[in-house]
Design goal:
Length: 202
């Protein structure tokens, strides 16, 4: 599958959906050893030690733990000396201001009554509409490593949208991370997750 960049596809979808976005589109890249989960024990930890004890991290870790259980791992506490560690991190980048213009053109008819010119057809062009909006880059990283430190899986999810609060988009980033797990190694794909019915910009 051909690699598609965030700027060329995700931003385009943001523009298309605008304020009525009903999807969260992400760019997902994964690397792995093509090994399937076989019931190994695993614990979720943070790459950033400052996040490890926070309630926010615990909330997101629970989402990841649910997915790890679904694909065949046995989630345990890190104190149980698990076979594997799932190290995760997340972030929201600085705001980016975008300007988009849309042409406004109108077609109308002018009628003139006369012997030689019964009617006249013409076009009227107006100035384009210009919109300014703010978007934010959001990311989720997940590395699964053995107790020896050897890497088993590395995943990166990137998304661009109008929602700045990571907690609002984290469920969709996690869903994208585990979509068709483990996926093709070394391949970047665009994954679109339907939202839960809300109609706010993402």
């Amino acid at each position: 599958m051909k690699t598609v960049t965030l700027n060329s596809l995700i931003l385009g979808l943001v523009l298309l959906l605008g304020g009525c976005a009903s999807q969260v589109t992400s760019e997902v890249t994964r690397f792995h050893r093509d090994t399937k989960p076989m019931g190994e024990t695993i614990a979720v930890t943070s790459m950033d030690e400052t996040k490890q004890g926070s309630l926010e991290f615990a909330t997101y870790a629970k989402m990841v733990e649910t997915k790890l259980t679904e694909i065949g791992y046995k989630v345990v506490d890190v104190s149980a000396r698990p076979d594997l560690l799932a190290k995760m991190d997340y972030s929201v980048g600085p705001a980016q201001t975008k300007i988009q213009s849309f042409p406004r053109n109108f077609v109308f008819y002018r009628f003139y009554y006369g012997y030689y010119h019964p009617y006249y057809f013409g076009k009227y062009w107006d100035e384009p509409e210009v919109y300014t909006y703010t978007i934010y880059p959001r990311s989720l990283d997940l590395n699964i490593v053995q107790a020896t430190g050897e890497s088993v899986f590395e995943g990166h999810v990137k998304s661009i949208g109008r929602e700045q609060n990571i907690n609002q988009v984290m469920p969709y980033l996690v869903e994208a991370m585990f979509n068709n797990y483990p996926g093709e190694s070394g391949v970047t794909k665009v994954v679109t997750i339907e939202k839960d019915g809300t109609r706010q910009p993402y």
